[in-house]
Design brief:
about 140 residues; alpha+beta; 7 strands; 7-stranded mixed beta sheet; Nucleoside Triphosphate Pyrophosphohydrolase; 3 helices
């Protein structure tokens, strides 16, 4: 096995509780609202890494329900990033934000569509369609 790295890898968790999704407001650029997640450590299992990221960023307990998709692109720093996105069911705890985030909100798809109480950035970050897809998967996985 080669130690040559091929990609930077991150994991994202679309954390849901009933019909609501958890969004976090980033403290560092890009200053966007999005689900919890972050980069994996070298040789870290993606599901274990996502549990770690959600716990570090929110203090919440979740169950990883299933794969929601992948994303590959450049976040503006010239370095490609592969993101593995999962659906994560809220299981308990109170949100306790890490220093990485300034605020949080539990929102429905309808609230996201209306931009109230938070608005998704139209140019960068997560889109309404990402959350609609996650909602549809929650319905599929949780039948």
């Amino acid at each position: 096995m080669s130690d040559t790295l091929t990609h930077r890898v991150a994991v994202i968790g679309f954390v849901y509780d009933g019909d609501r999704f958890l969004l976090l407001k980033r403290n560092n650029p890009p200053l966007v609202w999005g689900p919890p997640g972050g980069r994996l450590a070298m040789h870290e299992d993606p599901v274990a890494g996502l549990h770690r990221e959600i716990m570090e960023e929110t203090g919440l307990h979740t169950d990883i329900v299933g794969l929601a998709g992948t994303w590959f692109g450049d976040l503006g720093d010239g370095e490609p990033l592969l993101s593995i996105d999962y659906l994560a069911a809220y299981r308990g705890g109170e949100v306790k934000l890490s220093a990485e985030h300034a605020a949080y909100a539990w929102v429905t798809i309808e609230q996201l569509a209306a931009g109230d109480p938070v608005a998704l950035d139209s140019d960068i970050g997560f889109k309404l369609a990402d959350f609609e897809h996650a909602r549809d998967l929650a319905g599929f996985y949780c039948k």
